Amino acid sequence: MIRVMDVHKSYTKEKETIKGVSFEVKKGEIFGLLGPNGAGKTTLMQMIATLMKPTSGIIVIDGLTADKDLLEIHKRIGFLTNEIKLDPMSTPNRLFDFFAELYDIPKEQLYQRRKESFERFGIGPFADKRINELSTGMKQKISIAISLIHNPPIIIFDEPTNGLDILTSKQVTDYLMDLKEQGHAIILSTHIFSVAEALCDEIAILVDGRIAAQGSVKELVDQTGAENFEKAFFKIYVDNHVE
Ligand SMILES: Nc1ncnc2c1ncn2[C@@H]1O[C@H](COP(=O)(O)OP(=O)(O)O)[C@@H](O)[C@H]1O
Ligand SMILES: [Mg+2]
């Protein structure tokens, strides 16, 4: 579904932020990008979501590339990042209408999608409230619902549980597990070990713009000979961080 091949990104001449990253994500798989702040997770995900071009390297989404098939790719991707904010004066209902029109979603389908996600996330009672009156958790759940309004086969979620309380966080991770079961290909970034451990089939540990290690939780623990995943992560980080 997603192939990333030797991708590099430099924002400036002096510094390379992504230094040759390659990986693949298949249908029904959750691929985790785990790394400290500044490792390059958001940069990488923005490039995969075609919001930004790599300096070099190739990204193939469902057999398509951004230079030829940008619109087709957009239809197939649901992208969530903290950097995109909902209009504070709008309401959940109006946002749903707006994005449904943007994606050309038929009325019947919109009705279904709205019903499903309002029920799952308990958005109903807040449907006509202004966004700026809602809690952080509710805003995040609305962002998630909207990012998946077109039922995309590929889901790219940048730190989806960041800043959420444990109950909201669980609603989000349960949803991601359901989407995986339904066969979506999912990339998520996080710096929360328990989220990576609970959800990801495969994890790439990103350190200073490089994949320092990759594998399942068990493989990463075995590779490092660490007692647990958290210790494995720190070992990999210390062994690979140079700057
Ligand atoms: N628009 C930008 N211009 C210049 N440097 C940037 C820009 N966005 C991110 N960076 C730098 O790239 C590096 C990686 O950032 P980012 O991808 O946000 O990492 P992460 O999401 O893992 O925290 C950081 O050093 C950051 O300062
Ligand atoms: Mg980030």
Describe the fold and architecture.
The chain is an alpha/beta fold and 243 residues long. The chain has one domain: Rossmann fold (3-Layer(aba) Sandwich), CATH 3.40.50.300. The chain is 41% helix and 22% strand. It is built from nine helices and nine strands. It has a six-stranded mixed β-sheet, with helices on both faces. The protein is globular and about 50 Å long. The mean pLDDT is 94. The structure holds adenosine-5'-diphosphate and magnesium ion (MG).
Name every ligand kind in the structure. adenosine-5'-diphosphate, magnesium ion
CATH topology: Rossmann fold
Helix percentage: 40-55%
Query: How many domains comprise the coordinates?
Result: 1
Determine the number of helices (DSSP H or I, runs of at least 4 residues). Answer: 9
- Main beta sheet strand tally, sense and closure: 6 strands, mixed
Tally of DSSP β-strands = 9
Strands ordered across the widest β-sheet:
5-6-7-3-8-9
Question: Low-confidence parts lasting 5 or more residues at pLDDT below 50?
Answer: none
N-to-C span: 34 Å
Strand portion, in percent?
15-25%
Mean pLDDT metric: 94
Q: Radius of gyration over alpha carbons? A: 18 Å
Shape: globular
CATH class: Alpha Beta
Backbone structural class: alpha/beta
CATH architecture designation: 3-Layer(aba) Sandwich
- Series of secondary-structure elements, N-terminal to C-terminal: EEEHEHEHHHEHEHEEHH
Q: Can you identify the CATH superfamily?
A: P-loop containing nucleotide triphosphate hydrolases
